[in-house]
Amino acid sequence: xxxxxxxxxxxxxxxxxxxxxxTQIENADEVFTDNRFxxxxxxxxxxxxxxxxxxxxxxxxxxxxKINSDADFEKGAVREVSSKIExxxxxxxxxxxxxxLAGKLxxxxxxxxxxxxxxxxxxxxxxxxxxxxxxxxxxxxxxxxSNNYTKDGKSYTNPATCNYSSxxxxxxxxxxxxxxxxxxxxxIEGDYSSSxxxxxxxxxxxSTMASGLAAxxxxxAINESINQIQKHMSGQSYVVEYRKMDGKHFALIxxxxxxxxxxxxxxxxAKQAERYSRLEDKTTVVEVPYxxxxxxxxxxxxxxxxxxxxxxxxxxxHFGDLAKKLFDEQSIFDKLKQKVNL
Length: 342
Prior knowledge:
Curli production assembly/transport component CsgG; 14 strands; disordered C terminus; disordered N terminus; Thrombin, subunit H; Double Stranded RNA Binding Domain; 2 domains; 7 helices; flat; alpha+beta
């Protein structure tokens, strides 16, 4: 039965990989060097500066995880939360700032939340600060006695087992610096379970095991929530060139592999526009997404990449328009790999 399921799964994976060929750009040298294929697109209404067009990576500081408990086993969850968030952001191309450089930023945020005032200490170290907190960690164990069963006329015995489980609940608050504007509070929740041989019917949990169970629940929590956190880390990138050949359309953006951009990722385009609020009597710049998206081609450099777009983009995109990474939920391919443990 496993072989059939694996074969079916691998067939689907093969089809997915075959579909990835659509990211390949044929005759790339000709397309991107011959000006016959260059399309002159107008400047955006609100143009980025030359420095912005050069592109910079977002800097993020992940502060120490807060917890309202002195239980030793919960420290395993605390360590896992901060490190897992940092690893997830590094994979997204974010520049991680050493939290020791942030000084008393965590205390500054606490004061700001309570009073609405802040002194400015540590606010210039990064673009975004993440303050994780763990509100609850629970661990438990249970005993399952042995049992006998019959299959195909033969008798079998399932040995007694000790079952262990852990749950972690918390959140990660994202703040835009230096004005300490709350971007989002992301809920982080995770669970973990395992079983093992019986050493005693009480299935006691050692301190080392408790710390490991808490850490595993924290790891699951971050794995479940990291995409939501990454969505705010796409950084600013801009459209700087447009080309087309044989009905295929391509836009060049100022983001590349140094920002974690990879072939096959989706790109959201948007224009910047001024919006006047009569209520606040002020004008602000807002982002207005276009109805179409793009896909990163196989042409990805350190700081630039060619994006495959639909033909409607030709009459809508402007030089200087915004381009951002879209962080999807777990990909179909990743889910299939987990199903068959590839």
